[in-house]
Design brief:
This protein is an alpha/beta fold. It has 14 helices and 14 strands. The strands form 3 sheets. The protein has a 6-stranded mixed beta sheet, sandwiched between helices. It has a 4-stranded parallel beta sheet with strand order 8-7-9-10, with helices on both faces. A 4-stranded parallel beta sheet has the order 12-11-13-14, sandwiched between helices. Helix 4 links the parallel strand 5 and strand 6. Helix 11 packs parallel to helix 13. The longest helix is centred in the last third of the chain and has 14 residues. Bound molecules: iron/sulfur cluster (SF4). Iron/sulfur cluster binds next to loops.
Length: about 425
């Protein structure tokens, strides 16, 4: 059932536009529920609000309502930061503009970034010639959407409404209490046109009919009654590509290898925490990697993340390390990011680092204090967000790696664990 699809695997659609442009009303109309607070007062939406929904005929999406742009209230700066963060994960956007208060320059700046979007005018029935658009010259080279060609307006007596639609013929409208059926259908078409960019874990590397063993320790860290998302995702990818998967605990791995026969096994994928133990058991002729490293490949640039490991050997004592956890989870005494990696890094380098943690979609607006970054497998955040983070870290010249690669390095098996991609 589409409703079972985790949010990180859904296309994310972000509502953007000035405060009080009608974003939350549209968000509620699209989701069919009052998820976002709607008010006449500008800036009512503070934190971005998200809702998983089914958009027919496209399929499952995650819709995000934002506080909006141009917020001059006391909390405006904080809200704008959160809006900026929410935009990073957008696969597509709904740019919502009140037709009486259309900031064309802002829209053109947004459209110039070539992000897939729909332009939606609200309050079109009350549009007056005093609106900002009316002050614009009648001959315009404004794009209708990011992709469209310029349009020329001829009628000097045009009303604001006409001016808007001559300048932006592909714009849609939304009236409060209306059914956004046209917007749903246009959004569905827009999303269907996007290039598929889900990325692979191993589906493009391992031949059809190969044997792959999954090693999943069932210890105090394992969630009761289920297996975790990266393992489920890999299992599904193997099924999609006709790769035979065998799932065992670390304690049964040796038997499994003996039963299948070393020569018939193409790859062993282990939980990173069992790397050292599994490395001793898996014969040299069989390739070995971890679920977390495969996620690094699917949701990032594996070459960049691999290069990022090298930096950790040269960091000065006390260096600040940015730790990015894709979700807020219960932290235990065995937590990889908070306990194991800091301890193992100290043993490996002899240095004490200053680890600073950010969880979920939180991300520092100032990267200058950090000497390096380590991100988790990112199974709970979407691929676009994961790439946006890598881009920001690259722009700030901050080396970055991920939990799986780091654990392979401190266990002395980085080369073996990444041989598959070399
Ligand atoms: S911390 Fe990262 S890898 Fe672990 S469950 Fe959360 S998002 Fe997934």
């Amino acid at each position: 059932m589409a409703n079972n699809i985790v949010n990180s695997l859904r296309k994310h659609v972000v509502l953007i536009g000035k405060t009080n442009s009608g974003k939350s009303t549209l968000f509620n109309a699209l989701t069919g529920q009052d998820n976002a607070i709607v008010s006449e007062t500008a800036g009512t939406t503070t934190d971005p609000v998200g809702k998983a929904m089914e958009l027919l005929p496209f399929g499952p999406i995650f819709l995000v309502d934002t506080a909006g742009l141009g917020d001059t209230s006391d909390l405006g700066e904080e809200r704008m930061k959160k809006t900026h963060i929410a935009c990073r994960r957008g696969d597509a956007f709904l740019y919502v503009a009140n037709s009486n208060d259309f900031d064309e320059d802002d829209y053109l700046a947004f459209a110039g970034k070539k992000r897939p979007h729909l332009l939606i005018f609200t309050e079109i029935n009350t549009a007056t010639d005093s609106a900002a658009i009316a002050a614009k010259p009648l001959t315009t080279d404004s794009p209708t959407t990011a992709q469209d060609s310029p349009t020329t307006m001829q009628d000097s007596q045009a009303t604001t409404r006409e001016r808007l639609f001559v300048a932006y013929p592909h714009a849609l409208t939304f009236a409060e209490n209306g059914d956004p059926i046209e917007i749903r259908s246009a959004l569905s078409a827009l999303l269907s046109e996007l290039e598929p960019d889900d990325g692979y874990m191993i589906g493009d590397l391992i031949p059809y009919n190969s044997n792959v063993i999954f090693v999943i320790p069932v210890d105090s860290e394992a969630p009761k009654g289920r297996i975790i998302l990266p393992q489920v995702q890999l299992l599904r990818e193997c099924l999609d590509h006709g790769i035979r998967s065998y799932v065992v605990r670390d304690s049964e791995l040796e038997d499994a290898i003996a039963t299948l026969g070393e020569a018939s096994i193409r790859l062993v994928v282990t939980d990173s925490q069992a790397f050292a133990y599994v490395n001793q058991i898996v014969p040299d002729s069989v390739q070995l990697t971890s679920f977390s490293i495969l996620l690094a490949r699917q949701k990032g640039n594996i070459t960049q993340l691999l290069e990022g490991v090298d930096a950790f050997a040269h960091l000065p004592d006390g260096a600040k390390i940015l730790m990015l956890e894709g979700c807020t989870h219960n932290h235990t005494h065995e937590d990889i990011g908070r306990v194991k990696i800091p301890k193992l890094l100290k043993e490996q380098t002899g240095k004490t680092f200053d680890f600073q943690f950010f969880s979920g979609y939180d991300f520092p607006s100032d990267l200058s204090p950090y000497a390096a970054a380590i991100q988790c497998g990112n199974c709970m955040i979407n691929r676009r967000e994961a790439f946006a983070r890598l881009e920001e870290l690259t722009a700030a010249n901050i080396p970055v790696t991920n939990y799986g690669l780091m654990l392979a390095w401190v266990n002395g098996i980085l080369e073996r664990a990444t041989e598959l991609f070399r």
